[in-house]
Specification:
CATH class of the largest domain: Alpha Beta
CATH architecture of the largest domain: Alpha-Beta Complex
Number of helices: 10
Helix content: 40-55%
Amino acid sequence: MNFENILIEVDDAIGIITINRPKKLNALNKATIQELHEAFKALNEDEDVLVIIVTGAGDKAFVAGADIAEFADFSTSEGAKLAGKGQELLFDFVENLETPVIAAINGFALGGGLELAMACHFRLASDNARMGLPEVSLGVIPGYGGTQRLPRLIGKGRAMEMIMTGGMIGTEQALSYGLINHMFAQEQLLPQCKKIASRIIQNSPVAIGKAIKAINAGFIPGENGFNVEIMSFGECFGTEDFKEGTSAFLEKRKADFPGK
């Protein structure tokens, strides 16, 4: 796959997507969102890829927001279409992938950048990272899921403060809020992401995909997450991974999951 704005590599069942617009601090424009959709889709469909890591090029930014020049003159309907299409193509798409996605936040994660990180299944950050949703300073609100995902991750009050002030928080504060799982020195960020990914890879990819679905169901209005868990739990019994996992346990050996 050849892309203009992103880079992809696969290393030991780990797919790494790097947003590669360092001169723009890796800002998201429509073309980059489309490329990211295609990259996530392809890696999710690749049976040899069991974990995806997304990060930004350089040492300054993960994604420092959206490309404002692209929508500065939009009308009301165009703005709503921009948000709806972006959520469908990328943010909701990533959140609901069966393949686990880790955000490696290696610098500024602002606006759409933080929204992308929040759509990932969990987040790690370098100690120089800064995170925020500054949209109100431009006379707009977060449009790629920020008003929904941030309160779920850190609580309503803290999310209200972050969104209304438009300010940034550092990695230590993000860690205390539960916005990120771990903090590392920048040179250790990607190796540590790979280390966690390697632990995930040892487990059943089918079970992990069903766990993601069940967890997400608990945050969908009108959806009964417990029922989704029950159904997903039952479905696991019909998989080759379940047969291999239980056999390996009883035979006191390491499981070799076929991913089916």
